[in-house]
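Supplementary Methods S3. Complex input for the flavin-adenine dinucleotide-bound model.
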Amino acid sequence: MHSSPPIRGDLTPELLQTSQWTDEQVSAAGIPIHDIPFVTVGGGIGSFVTVDYLRIYGVPTDRMRVLSNIDTPWETYEYLTRVSQIPRPERIRSDSSSRPDNLWGFPSYALEEAWREKRLSHLWQIATEPILNDYWTPRAGTVFRGLEREAKRISYWDMLVKGQVRMVRKRVGGGYFTILTPPDGLSETRRVAFRSQYVHLAVGYPGLKFLPDLQDFRERHRDYTRVVNAYERHEHVYEALKTRPGVVMVRGGGIVASRVLQRLMDDREEFGLQTQIVHIFRTFVTGSHGPNVFMRRKGGHGWAYQGFNYPKSVWGGQLKARMRKLEGEDRKKLYQDIGGTNTPKRRRWQQQMAKGRRENWYHAFQGMVDKVEPGPDGRLISHVRSSNGRIQQYVSDFIIDCTGLEADIAEHRVLADLLQHGGAERNPLGRLEVERHFEVKGTASGDGALYASGAATLGGYFPGVDTFLGLQIAAQEIADDLARRGFCKKMGPFRSTSQWFKWAFNKAV
Ligand SMILES: Cc1cc2nc3c(=O)[nH]c(=O)nc-3n(C[C@H](O)[C@H](O)[C@H](O)COP(=O)(O)OP(=O)(O)OC[C@H]3O[C@@H](n4cnc5c(N)ncnc54)[C@H](O)[C@@H]3O)c2cc1C
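Predicted complex, serialized as structure tokens:
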């Protein structure tokens, strides 16, 4: 009999069980070691803005590596926005100066679109927002074009190493080993190790979270086409509605629910469809609400309205300053006060929903869904419990779950390993606890430091982490901390100005 040769350079039981590795242990396992002072894991927008800052601070490409399973920094973001109904020509949520490709935020996206399209209306809108007009926000395509230009300018692809990161472990003597599984056929060994003094994690969302009743229905009936999550491909739903009239149940009250509704309503208008929409809100907002007069938010017809996902002062005002001082339960309480699902109040959406209510094809209700089951005619029956305890049944042809991406951080292998072996702790919201400069608490290793930014760190001293601007604020804190540790030079006003000119003229850093 012919047995296949043992896989070379793999993790051994000894390595798996040891929280801190020596160089000898890794070499003895046959895992090749690459020495790179700084690695960032993820390769999405969070990794991109971090290496962008560091390149502009003066770090050469050969001192940094981006370890990622995607080819371009915007790939995952573009996938998630596209499936949740924001294709390139549509507008995203964040504002004109939240530019992940430009750390100065100037010129803003509005100026850029006005210049490129030779249209002053963009400038008029931004000058009159949000009173006379909705907030101006950039097209998704504008964001991707800018990221591509900046990625080329900083030689992003010279730093990219493709593969799946399996874990980050502390190294005896300081620093870390980051273990990467390269794509099949690209390496002679099953794993490679990056030995570095600094590691940054920006792994995005740990995973999709399905509502339990929907997950249950999908698994029991093996039906993944009629009950869908807005963050998965579900174009077939819109296509099916073009071939015959149907009822769609939408669940959730955030911006993704708004976008999905807009798509259903746009298609209704454009193709003369008869789609009926049943919208279930777990929390049905009927008017202005909030913990006190200073923190009120508008609302109505089920929705809580807010321009951006948090009040603007979390990025640079009084809420940022307040949160920075809070610990434990106090921090959690403030998160509860300022958080909650909300969506921007855009005029077009308001008009479309008002029309739907008038013409009796858009119906919104409060309720918690107890279970979903197939009816006698094969359609979907949702048993919805309202706040007074009454159960109502709603029949639909499709259910689109727009409730979230918020899986537990322990569902991500690298983060779970970090909690188990790396000394990381959870913050008051259950995510990774980071310092004010985004170092993960408990993970220091000799003179090495491990940082994290993005959704995995929500609940820390800075609330806006999972946004472009938040990722940039984190990147700046990290770059400043690295400058203090001597990894790069500090950035003063003169170098910043000269770097801005390089950005403006698209000259390499
Ligand atoms: C639909 C949607 C719309 C949004 N709109 C806005 C907006 O308008 N404005 C705004 O400011 N923010 C917005 N956000 C929030 C946020 O800015 C983006 O999600 C942003 O992409 C987050 O960047 P990130 O680097 O944390 O995650 P991502 O961009 O998702 O990148 C993380 C990457 O890490 C990779 N990865 C994970 N684990 C591993 C591993 N073990 N090995 C290798 N690679 C790994 C993943 O594949 C992923 O590609 C939006 C989010 C969503 C979901």
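The pocket of flavin-adenine dinucleotide is lined by residues 41-47, 67-70, 76-77, 80-81, 84, 92-94, 98, 164-165, 202-204, 405, 414, 454-455, 466-468, 471 (CB under 6 Å). The chain has two domains: 13-75+156-206+408-498, 212-307+342-401.
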